[in-house]
Amino acid sequence: MVSRKLRARVKLSRYRQYELARAAGLHPTVFSKILNGAEPVKPNDPRVIAIGRVMGLEPEQCFEEANRGAGNGF
Fold this sequence. Notes:
Elements: H1 4-12, H2 17-24, H3 28-35, H4 46-54
Helix pairs in contact: 2-3, 2-4
């Protein structure tokens, strides 16, 4: 899953999404689907990493932890 941090960076960017998509080497529709969860992504998906790179994030900052909150007894 795409991280909240990456989504926030895109939303707060001064660039339009189509410009960010172009910089990441993605079609704007694919870019939008990835950010909105309509396009399934796997851990270390190179498309998400490309978006993160454009936004100045490290690859590990681009994905939510799969088991966040696991093991807390709830």
